Amino acid sequence: MTIPVIATGMSGLVGSRVRELLQDKFYFEDLSLTTGIDITDADAVAKAFDLSDAKIVLHMAAKTDVDACEDDKYLGKEGGAWLVNVQGTKNIVSAAAKTGKKVIYISTDFVFDGTKEIYNEKDKPNPVSWYGYTKFLGEDEVSSSGEIFNIIRISYPYRSKFEEKMDFVHRILDNMKKGKRIYGLTDHIFTPTFVDDIAVCLELFLNRDLSGIYHVVGSQALSTIDALKIIKEVYNLSAEIIPVERSEFFKQRAFRPFKLALNNDKIQKLGLTMLPFDRGILKVKKQDSP
Ligand SMILES: NC(=O)c1ccc[n+]([C@@H]2O[C@H](COP(=O)([O-])OP(=O)(O)OC[C@H]3O[C@@H](n4cnc5c(N)ncnc54)[C@H](OP(=O)(O)O)[C@@H]3O)[C@@H](O)[C@H]2O)c1
């Protein structure tokens, strides 16, 4: 029998793959604009929760475009980033508390400022972008609810090709294949995460009574330029990769944390394995080939 789960964000880059992989085990009651529920509408959310028998909520919906979120900053609480990421999460948390449902909230490495060598779950967030700030306030809504919760921080998710929204791997592949200039940041460290591994972890979180914060991230932190070299080699492409520093590359764009190595020891202790980028990318290539 499939277990009912209220889910948001199921049409997105991460959610659509999670649904594909877990739909035999869980029945996802999808709350999205497409299914007629705007999470910024507290009454609509409360009604959907009242009607549901699910005991658990997987909350992935967010405004995720970092630059578009930055543009919302001057609008403050009236802007989309705040409305979806903070108010939307508050609506979910409050409806969940009233109906006795546990919330699993998907968050981001962007809650950190990127000044530390490596981050674990005990490190204090200090977001430097409006996106990161609103996601952090979303975390705060969840953790201060007084209810049992999970905050799952993911980082640079990549997956099999998804036509609706490209992950960073397919954006780079697309540019390499079109012969565009490829710039590789030499001083940006990140921790890419294979979405199929996120799905395996979520299955465990949906099935077990765990609580607290977890970093569900890949097992390899690397520079962007090194990731580009791996992609180029695995896909056997001949693109030229031009080294560039972050101060030059992100000149006109939202400020980003630049050293985002996250440690995943806590989930490894649960027996979960997260692939390093150089192995995850091989799986993606295999999944992409017909
Ligand atoms: N992508 C990344 O690089 C990344 C990195 C770290 C963490 N994360 C986190 O992972 C989660 C999933 O990210 P993603 O990249 O998969 O997202 P995405 O592709 O941008 O999709 C966003 C999802 O949010 C839903 N949504 C947006 N506004 C909504 C609203 N007002 N009411 C209801 N649903 C709404 C959308 O559904 P409809 O449009 O169908 O309504 C869609 O399913 C997010 O919480 C994000 O913060 C993402």
UniProtKB/TrEMBL annotation:
CDD domains with a match to the protein in the record: dTDP_HR_like_SDR_e (cd05254)
RmlD-like substrate binding domain segment(s): 5-275
Gene Ontology biological-process entries: dTDP-rhamnose biosynthetic process
Molecular-function annotations in GO: dTDP-4-dehydrorhamnose reductase activity
Tree of life domain: Bacteria
Top-level class of the enzyme under EC nomenclature: oxidoreductase
Keyword Oxidoreductase: yes
UniProt keywords, alphabetically: NADP, Oxidoreductase
EC code: 1.1.1.133
Matches recorded under InterPro entries: dTDP_dehydrorham_reduct, NAD(P)-bd_dom_sf, RmlD-like-bd
Pathway the protein contributes to: Carbohydrate biosynthesis; dTDP-L-rhamnose biosynthesis
Keyword tRNA processing assigned: no
Function statement: Catalyzes the reduction of dTDP-6-deoxy-L-lyxo-4-hexulose to yield dTDP-L-rhamnose.
Annotated family: Belongs to the dTDP-4-dehydrorhamnose reductase family.
Record-given protein name: dTDP-4-dehydrorhamnose reductase
Originating species: Candidatus Gottesmanbacteria bacterium RIFCSPHIGHO2_01_FULL_40_15
Lineage: Bacteria, Candidatus Gottesmaniibacteriota
